[in-house]
Amino acid sequence: MLFVNFRRRLLFYTPKLFYANMSSKCEVAVCQFTATNDKERNLSIVKKLVNEAVDKNAKVVFLPEATDYIGTSKEETKQLSEPLNGKLMSEYKNLAKSNNIWLSIGGIHEKVSENETFNSHVLIDNKGEIQSLYRKIHLFDVCIPEKNINLRESDFNKGGNQVLAPASTPCGKLGLAICYDLRFPELALIQRKFGAEILTYPSAFTSKTGQAHWEILLRARAIENQCYVIAAAQYGKHNEKRVSYGQSIIIDPWGKILSQCPVYKEGTDTNESVAVATIDLEHLAKMRNEMPVMDHKRNDVYSMELNETPVYLINDDEIFSFADKTIPGSTVFYKTPYSFAFTNIRCVVPGHVLISSLRPAKRLQDLTETEIADLFNAAVKVEKVLEKHHSTSSTTVCVQDGRLAGQTVPHVHVHILPRHAGDFERNDDIYDSLAKHDLEDNPQPLRTPQEMSEEAKVLRTYF
């Protein structure tokens, strides 16, 4: 029997994925404005800022926390919230698509039920599709009477409970966060460990806390993680109770400020501005190679662990390698730091899927201990999902480790096959069928890409 230690220790490995049209340099824009409780007005300003960013050749535009609105009371804040399929999100999607640009909507009040609202960072691609959705995990509940600060975000928002894997974009891999998350360096470190090249902190920092900590914290996150930092900020006087610090900013991995918008100035209640800078991934790689801080971490002395593996949202445009074959992202339904699960082109039983290592490796012994643990942890998760989806309580889990064991594709992979009573005359006949299922003379027709993609789309909803 094979026993694997599933302890989720975060080691450093960035899987090589491919994103169409990725280049080493990319223009990005960071925006700031003064949101109010008037959603139509706020949207009009956002459109103006995005158009300005497009004119400056930006490929990705970053907007602040509370892009949708800032309410005047707890009741109004809840009442104005909308679901992801609401009118306002449709406007943002159309804005991205019509301008052929990616949008980071740094924070919206996402309504999921009558009593539940999340502070959500939404990443929209240039086709108008949501590519990533992060729900803020650290809520700002702070009362400092002497500094006139009394904010309880938990009064109107629910905290998220997942760390997202970095999202692939034209400017690099984005780690998504929101405002108060900036004060928790563990989150940034986890994102870096999972491949982030850019850390994002859309915010509505108060004027008081901004003066004390805003720039210092942002530059620290950039330096300690060797990442670009992009932080879009709210500015100025939103209502009689709220004043935000401003200074939307772009910082390079050395901690150098590349571009920024104005800091709040008393007497200047509002500001609408755009700052642009170039993200240079070759420069980032050079800097990391010259000072390989992450390689010098003493994982033998200390480590950092997640209670759960981050959620990796899958881009249909990604291409995955499976030996000499390519697997379209649209057929992949689950992804981890080291493995991916995808639907099968020819199934031995209904629901038969495969899980493979992201890194090309012929046999289990070619994988690291961390990769092996990740692969089998993924297999268990996928097994549970398939049993639920196919209403069964039994599964055949099989690895053909080498040619003589029946492996026809020389890339480590696990077969997950949901079982039902009577699906084979003799239970072990499944292994004969498995050995023959991908032979050329198999009369069973190959499934179409559309069939495989549709199945993957359904399975994704379980993770």
UniProtKB/TrEMBL annotation:
It catalyses: P(1),P(3)-bis(5'-adenosyl) triphosphate + H2O = AMP + ADP + 2 H(+). Its cofactor is Mn(2+). It is an enzyme of class 3 (hydrolase). One of its GO terms (biological process) is nucleobase-containing compound metabolic process. The active site is at H413. Substrate binds at N344, Q400, G406, Q407, T408, V409, H415. Residues 28-288 form the CN hydrolase domain. CDD domains: FHIT, nit. GO terms for molecular function: bis(5'-adenosyl)-triphosphatase activity; hydrolase activity, acting on carbon-nitrogen (but not peptide) bonds, in linear amides; nucleotide binding. Keywords: Hydrolase, Multifunctional enzyme, Nucleotide-binding. SUPFAM superfamilies: Carbon-nitrogen hydrolase, HIT-like. This is Nitrilase and fragile histidine triad fusion protein NitFhit.
